[in-house]
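pasting for the record
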Amino acid sequence: MNAHMIVVLIAATTLADQLSKALALSKLAFGQPVAVVPGFNLTLGFNEGSSFGMLSGVMAGKPLLMAALTGALTLMFAV
């Protein structure tokens, strides 16, 4: 796979992600499940922490601090 295809794939994935988020925000009400098919519901919710809600009490309302922490951890593991 060449560099052009990788850039197109990243752009398409980012676009699909942002469109699905915009659709969810416009069509779903917070905490109200919407049945898609039997046994599968969509529910709008927000994770203010890291994975699985860890640090949610500490990081709630501090997205830039969370981004800085994530960046620092990524650099640490990369080095």
